[in-house]
């Protein structure tokens, strides 16, 4: 299914998407690790080379390796944020990773 992209950019290069239930999104990876963080709803994130599928709820995030293929699937209506990784975040609430 197609996604409705609500992209917002700040000086830190943060992108966000509003996804309807059952919508999927191919995440744009680059040369540096990124963090996929859920602000609202529930999203499953999977990436080539990672044996785990990460089911994330509000405030949870997963760090994505650069390059390869990563896909997000909205299990409910959701808001997903993608930003440059600043630390080691893997499927934990962001407060605990700070």
Kindly describe this structure.
The chain is mostly beta strands and 98 residues long. It has one domain: Jelly Rolls. Helix content is 4%, strand content 45%. It is built from one helix and nine strands, in the order E-E-E-E-E-E-E-E-E-H. The protein has one helix spanning 94-97; strands at residues 15-19, 24-26, 34-40, 43-47, 54-56, 60-64, 70-74, 78-84, 90-93. A five-stranded antiparallel sheet has the order 1-8-3-6-9. The longest helix is centred in the C-terminal third of the chain and has 4 residues, at 94-97. Mean pLDDT is 80; it is low at 5-11 and 88-98.
Topology diagram in text:
Layout: E1 15-19, E2 24-26, E3 34-40, E4 43-47, E5 54-56, E6 60-64, E7 70-74, E8 78-84, E9 90-93, H1 94-97
Antiparallel strand pairs: 1-8, 2-7, 3-6, 3-8, 4-5, 4-7, 6-9
Summarize the structure.
The protein is built from one helix and nine strands, in the order βββββββββα.
- Tally the structural domains: 1
Order of helices and strands: EEEEEEEEEH
Distance N to C terminus: 34 Å
Mean pLDDT: 80
Sheet with the most strands: spatial strand order: 1-8-3-6-9
Strand content: 35-45%
Bin the helical content.
under 10%
User: What name goes with the CATH superfamily?
Assistant: Jelly Rolls
**CATH topology type:** Jelly Rolls
Low-confidence stretches: 5-11, 88-98
Oligomer: single chain
- Return Rg in Å: 12 Å
Identify the CATH class.
Answer: Mainly Beta
Total DSSP E strands: 9
- Which architecture does the CATH hierarchy give at level 2? Sandwich
